[in-house]
Specification:
The complex is a heterodimer of chains A (162) and B (260). Chain A is an all-alpha fold. Chain A contains 9 helices and no strands. In chain A, helix 1 packs antiparallel against helix 2. By secondary structure, chain B is an alpha+beta fold. In chain B, 48% of the residues lie in helices and 13% in strands. In chain B, strand 1 and strand 2 form a beta hairpin. In chain B, 35% of the residues are buried. Classes of the chains: A mainly alpha (162), B alpha+beta (260). At the A-B interface, helix 1, helix 2, helix 6, helix 7 and helix 9 of A face helix 1, helix 2 and helix 3 of B.
């Protein structure tokens, strides 16, 4: 299959998943857009042969997470404080006008207040259904650390939502 | 207990929200989040733009650059070596004999790459005039305009001084061109002091030899006063009067035979 067709198909199948990852991790809506585009651009350029659709989905999530991390690092280097940005507008998902219904804003706000790794771990575990081992591989972290992130993240969420 | 089960174990130690309820809340919240259509369309457009470029990997770009650099080096080397070889290769030999006599070796650009006097006066003349590297016409001009030649021309008491030119080369066309240039140079130099006589080339030595044996040989240089076969009928062909040197083993041999 031609690369461009393969990427277009991936865009149709995994756009929502990749967007959620980008929106969760990026500081602003614009950053989330950039990360989303960059993720699929890398799919076009560098995607390996995928054995299964799950393999492809996991690859996209990993790339999207890394792209967002790189953007955050760049922003930190340019002295744009992440905390200041988050205080101003929260993360991209919490401030996005694309999130339908005000009922979920409390959940997104709570997620936005979690540290980056905890947020990603909780999302991948609860929403995407990945195991700690799979999340550890995606986030390039030890499995026990992922357990800790999920546990702490959930505890904080419960406290915030109670 | 699997990792997933460990992750999703109900936790009630902190906060009032049960773990299952928290998971359900999160799943519900995120299930309604979709990629904005404008972002998806913009991404599609961006991919369509970048697809034809195929955004070559850096390693490939470097390989192409290295290959291009090597190719450029190879071409430059080939051109340099070829040019140097072409410059240093003798394709024509012109003997200019007035007494002094000199022999000029020309390359394919008709530049003088070697000059030697064929008699003592010729050697003195070349010491006076360094013609190496000059185009043929300039070299001939320099020789005819030298002080030595001026003195010899003066000693002729008004009679034109014969400039005998023998051209050896492997191309009739080049030979004709050199004949024409020689004629122009001699006519232009000294305002009538000189008269040109053109001779056979070494490449035609065999023909000259044949002529010496009484066979006809075609004129290689046409036109102009004293040109081959134009009245003198001797030196130019190295035949006519029997070619004093007999076998005619080159331009100068055939020519000298005709002159003497």
């Amino acid at each position: 299959m031609k690369r461009s067709l393969r990427t277009e198909r991936a865009l149709g199948a995994y756009a929502d998943t990749v967007w959620r990852v980008c929106a969760l991790s990026a500081r602003t809506h614009a950053d989330a857009q950039d990360a989303f585009q960059e993720t699929f651009a890398r799919h076009l350029e560098k995607a390996p042969h995928f054995r299964t659709s799950e393999h492809e989905k996991a690859w996209l999530i990993r790339v999207a997470t890394n792209v967002c991390k790189d953007m955050l690092k760049r922003a930190e280097r340019s002295n744009a404080s992440l905390e200041q940005e988050q205080e101003r507008g929260g993360n991209a998902l919490a401030s996005s006008a694309d999130v339908p219904g005000a009922a979920y804003s409390e959940v997104f706000d709570a997620m936005a207040r979690l540290p980056c790794d905890q947020r990603a771990s909780v999302y991948l575990s609860v929403v995407e259904g990945y195991t700690a081992a799979e999340i550890a591989a995606m986030l390039d972290a030890p499995e026990n650390t992922v357990y800790s992130w999920i546990s702490r993240g959930k505890r904080q969420l419960r406290e915030m939502l109670s | 207990m699997t990792n997933q089960e460990r992750t999703l174990q109900p936790r009630t130690s902190a906060g009032d929200v049960p773990d299952d309820a928290l998971d359900a809340l999160l799943r519900d919240a995120f299930s309604s989040v979709a990629a904005p259509s404008d972002v998806v369309e913009a991404t599609k457009a961006s991919l369509a733009e970048s697809a034809p470029r195929a955004r070559k990997p850096l390693a490939k770009i470097y390989r192409i650059r290295i290959a291009a650099t090597l190719a450029a080096c190879f071409i430059l080397t080939a051109v340099g070596v070829g040019g140097a070889t072409a410059w240093g290769s003798v394709v024509s030999v012109v003997e200019v004999q007035v007494n002094p006599s000199v022999e000029l070796s020309l390359n394919c650009f008709d530049a003088v790459i070697a000059a030697q006097g064929t008699n003592d006066d010729g050697r003195l003349l070349l010491e006076e005039c360094d013609v190496i590297g000059m185009p043929y016409e300039r070299a001939l001009d320099a020789l005819l305009g030298s002080d030595m030649m001026a003195r010899i021309a003066l000693s002729q008491e008004g009679r034109p001084l014969e400039v005998n030119v023998a051209i050896s080369c492997d191309s009739d066309e080049r030979q004709q061109q050199l004949c024409d240039r020689s004629e122009q140079c001699v006519n232009a130099a000294g305002a009538g002091q000189y008269r040109l006589r053109l001779g056979w080339g070494a490449a035609n030595a065999e023909q000259g030899e044949a002529s010496a044996q009484g066979e006809d040989a075609p004129d290689q240089c046409e036109g102009g006063e004293g040109s081959a076969g134009a009245g003198n009928g001797n030196g130019a062909h190295g035949a006519g009067n029997g070619s004093g040197n007999g076998s005619g083993n080159g331009a100068s041999n055939g020519y000298h035979g005709g002159r003497d």
